[in-house]
TrEMBL record:
It comes from the Bacteria. It comes from Candidatus Scalindua japonica. It holds the Pfam family TPP_enzyme_C. Residues 73-210 form the Thiamine pyrophosphate enzyme TPP-binding domain. Keywords: Iron, Iron-sulfur, Magnesium, Metal-binding, Oxidoreductase, Pyruvate, Thiamine pyrophosphate. This is Pyruvate:ferredoxin oxidoreductase and related 2-oxoacid:ferredoxin oxidoreductases, beta subunit. Residues 215-277 form the Pyruvate ferredoxin oxidoreductase beta subunit C-terminal domain. NCBIfam families: PorB_KorB. One of its GO terms (molecular function) is thiamine pyrophosphate binding.
Amino acid sequence: MSFLSKQTVLDELKKAKASKIKEWRDNLPTWCPGCGHFTGLHGLYEAAERLKIPSKDFVVVSGIGCSGRFPFFIKGFGLHGLHGRAIPIATGIKIANPDLTVVVVGGDGDGVGIGGGHFPHAARSNFNLTYILLDNSIYGLTKGQISPTSPMGMKSGTSPYGNIARPLNPTTLSLAYGATFVARTFSRERDMVSELITKAIQHKGFSFIHDLSPCVVFNKDVTYDSWNAAAAKLPEEHDILDRSRAMSLAESTDPIYQGLFFREEVPTFDDHVQKVKDGLNQPA
Ligand code: SF4
Ligand code: MG
């Protein structure tokens, strides 16, 4: 694992002091030092501060896993749901209370393993909420078993001879499912994570962030260094309205592109629900 230079640490401390994110902070995070999830959490604090989301209108829903602790660390409403069931809980909250800002946070096992059946339907329906998938290619909370995004050959407690199944790619899945905002970030790039989470929350529709967020304790194969070696920003000329080009860039594993792949504005699920309600209220 590489370490940040002294100057970078001092600059980051200065930035943190100047930032007003403490208004959205709650309990102190309990993750292992160096866990990638700290960057995602910081990004969410910064987005809430930039967008001035009142705590009373801010809901964070999580599933199970190390990322499941998010709601405890944020001042707002929160629900730590069942494994893989964060999305249906969040969509229910959004239908009942369309004015709330709803953010779903989950891991790779939670989102494309046990909860893999919910993701496509929230995306294709274009629910107006944000889904942040913190991908560390392992089950961290249960101490290191291969997950649906672990690379082939990776050894773990449940794959002593190496993983023999091909990994899923959450970015390409979200594009195929019809998400209307798709971005990939890397927990080493704090400013990029904050900026894209802010844009995702601003987006009207289903916004998806695939954050590469290393587990520094249990994953010795997929690390800050391994992702950093393959990381690249999306080409400047990339047209974010072109879903098929976004798909081919998202499929690349060398380099692994980061940035905003795709965005489109189409009516949301909430818009359609409102239309139905308005129709029901018309005199016969
Ligand atoms: Fe993060 Fe891994 Fe520690 Fe969980 S076990 S908090 S994912 S470093
Ligand atoms: Mg995981």
